[in-house]
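hi! just following up on the protien thing from before. the input was this:
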Amino acid sequence: MVQRRFPRPSDLAPLLRPAPFLRDAAERRLARATSIHDLREIARRRTPRAVFDYTDGAAEDERSLNRARQVWGSVEFTPSVLRDVSSVELSRDILGKRSALPFALAPTGFTRMMGTEGERAVAPVARDAGIPYALSTMGTTTIEDTAAAAPDGRHWFQLYLWRDRSVAKDLVARAEAAGYDTLMLTVDTPVGGNRRRDVHNGLSVPPALSLKTFLDGARHPHWWFDLLTTEPLTFASLESSDGTVADLINRVFDPALTMDDVTWLRDTWPGKLVVKGIQSVEDARRVTDAGADAVLLSNHGGRQLDRAPVPAELIEPVVQELGDEAEVLVDTGIMHGGDVVAALALGARAALVGRAYLYGLMAGGQLGVRRSVEILTAEIERTMQLIGVTRVDDLRPQHARLRPIG
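and the predicted 3d structure came back as:
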């Protein structure tokens, strides 16, 4: 028989401890987020649909993005137990400098649309985390202002080559003068991808107050208040930005980009050169022979060619081809620190994350970006401990494999 008794007040006291009250509303929201998917859901509720879909969406039927995420989800780790994992070292050299974490924050366009602070919120978080941050040609803060927001940070600049090469040459010179140490040439945008969500939502640059956006805006007054009471939302490096993003790409960027341009840029830029948008072993070899210090395996987050190769599946063959001649970076579909660990085990030097921190920016500004980095960092550390590896540099292909899908 169970003997029952009435609890004394002293018995209840330990059970009735209230959680600490956070005065800041953003802190309260973000405290509930335990994953990037949680941040995504908060972002979805807090931003107009057109803004969320611009970040969340991809091209055509979005197969490229969905396949990328499926492949990361197919990773199977091989744990080794009975190892001392009380201390884990997450730092490694990326393009000649030590990074405190094995990932960087990827370049994203129109960043101030997701949160008023835009790049000025992201750069200090990257600096404090000890990781690189890449500013996009289509960013909404200038090269100089982004550097000034985190003067001790490590800055990379992502470049699209324009039809007018003098414009690109000016941007490169400004990046060098502002202390950027790495240039990232994007080569997978000869034309703009067909991003149907943007078309359906009528998203333009800058956003236009159609009846549809006005009605949606009534549900997100804080976003519109920020938009209308801060500096105009434009692409900081583009003189003209009217129309859709695809219109802008087709009008300004150069579909005649060739290997000669990679060679020209290598001769022009004195720092590290990364070529972004590599989707085959053959192209990885070509740009490395032209002088690239690293290749970024990427299908543009699924935002350009639908049914594109999955970057994660290219890591091992590209690493085998290039050896020590160039570093291999990877992006697209990374939503968990375990994805980063898998990329490193397969042979990548580092991963780049984009949507993951943009969800944080939409969910809570700079605090949200910081929360996204904290979540990814904790997931990387915990995954490494659970598979029995204490140093990022010790990750090997035997620690992870891609299981067949379907």
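The longest helix spans residues 355-387.
The radius of gyration is 22 Å.
cheers
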